Amino acid sequence: MKRIISVAVFLIAFLGLVNSGSAQCKGFTKKKCLPQLEPYVYNGQLNSAVLNEGDIAELLLTFYGGQDYRIYICSQEVLGNIEFKLLDTDRNTIFDNTEQNSIDHWDFSANSTQQLIVQVKVPENTSMNEIVASGCVSILIGFKE
User: Fold this and answer.
1) N or C: which end of the chain has fewer CB within 10 A?
2) Residue 23: φ, ψ to 5°
3) Check: CATH 3.20.20.30 for 2-143?
4) Can you tell me the distance from the alpha carbon of 53 to that of 124, in angstroms, rounded to the nearest whole number?
5) Residue 118 burial (CB < 10 Å; 0-12/13-18/19+)?
6) 121 vs 12, 46, 79, 114, CA distance in Å?
7) Three-class SS string for 76-133?
8) For the segment 6-21, what is each residue's pLDDT rounded down to a tens digit?
9) Coil, strand or helix: which one is 6?
10) Strand pairing class (67-75; 105-110)
11) How far apart are CA 26 and CA 51, in angstroms?
């Protein structure tokens, strides 16, 4: 019985840390990232997560034909230059920021309504430091009115 209570207390404490990290990421995104979307209008979807070096995350989004968009990838400096790609649903690369000097955003016009995958990758640490870097990464979408 004592062991079950210990496990339950650990789980509650762990979930509290996860929520705390998520709240810190949300605050970082609202304060540091949202202003960078201008002159585009934020679409209202907050897509952010705490990632570790070497992590890859993907997000499937719908883009509407005839609309101009900005995809902006915002991250904490400790993570370095985040790599991001825009892929179609057949996983063909439409855009790769590593071919564009690792820029943090891409502006484009959607010719037709389609679902696209935004893939972000946190680079791995190349130093001999054994501490794994962790930080907030946000994928923000803006559109022109």
Assistant:
1) N
2) -65, -40
3) no
4) 5
5) buried
6) 30, 18, 10, 23
7) CHHHCCCEEEEEECCCCEEEEHHHCCCCCEEEEEECCCEEEEEEEECCCCCCCCCCCC
8) 443 333 433 443 344 5
9) helix
10) antiparallel
11) 13
Q: How far is CA 36 from the centre of its chain?
A: 14
Tokens of 83: 């790599």
Pull the structure tokens for residue 101.
Answer: 């000097």
Closest CA to 37 of 118, 142, 136: 142
pLDDT digits (tens, 9 = 90+) for 37-53: 999 999 999 899 999 99
Nearest to 81 by CA among 95, 94, 100: 100
Q: Which of 78, 66, 77, 123 is nearest to 97 (CA)?
A: 123
CA distance 79 to 121: 10
For the segment 104-112, the average pLDDT, to the nearest whole number, is 96
> Whole-angstrom Cα distance, residue 106 to residue 91?
18
